[in-house]
Amino acid sequence: MSIITPQETIQVTLGERSYPVWIGRDLLDDHARWRNMLRGRHALVISNHTVAPLYLQRVASGLEGLRWSSFLLDDGEAHKSFANVGLALEALATLGATRDACVVALGGGVVGDLAGFTAACWMRGIDFIQMPTTLLSMVDSSVGGKTGVNLPAGKNLAGAFHQPRAVIADIGTLDSLPAREYRAGMAEVIKGAAIGDAAFFAWLEQHAAALAARDETALVQAIATKVRYKAGVVARDETEQGERALLNLGHTFGHALETAGHYTTLLHGEGVAVGTLLAARLSERLGMSASTDTLRLEQLLGTIGLPTTVPAGYDPEQLLALMRLDKKNTAGTLRLILWRGIGAAEIVSGVNEADVLAVLREACAGT
Which is the catalytic residue, given 79, 150, 155, 188? Predict the structure, then answer.
């Protein structure tokens, strides 16, 4: 007897720019579902050299009758650069792309961010479709319209809000995802529950073993729950003027860790895992939350197999300097996302740098 994988459809409600997020197996092959999202005659598929050999042909068979081409990146965060945006724009020019063209992002967060930014720049904005192939991109970066590239000074410092036409999350692509990448994606799921859904956090604790084993029923439910939560936040605060900033719990710490490691030491999800735990420890230090909440978070991250310590060799002073560049900061003061316990994140302005540095020093010392 065959097992039918559940499917979910979640709507991101943004008026005329609303779009569906489809979650299920074999959706890349469901051309009738997504082909009509391409409104013009031209399409550029942006992918990378790891993903394209696995899935590009399946997407290409849905592009028959269009004039299309592909632009492939090398794999890794270091390639989310202005140089590659320029090359992708040249590929659109070579294609002869008009204002009704569409960019298709086939890959993980790096591909999705760069493809979306490229689409936002070409002729001041054309359509793009997200086809995320990593768990991290399915539950986070493909939804919400944040696009951008990295600079040597920091991660995602250049970018634009540009919503996709649709998100096609084919969980079959996760079959080829390395275990480390899969675990990195689970960090975003855990972070979402930590921000605003204590009941979902408890569900994750109960189903951690099944999720670690990639049980499809549990996996689809976890993805859908996280996407549904994020879609609601995006609908209420598209350009991060208030509530949406809460989705960055742990990101100020995590982005600093990624940048200090030149985007090669930690995967983004691993940076989020450690960063979220550091945010919890800072919250505890400031008297905002209990040690029991920090411990539950640390245990869940560990059960999934995510890192909970800062890698050796990091300098706390350098990390603090990188945190000062975070986009959420205002008037030269740190503005962090902290929590009052599981499911109760909040924006905290004017955080004392001495407290942040103390947490960083303890973490870098392994204490």
Answer: 188
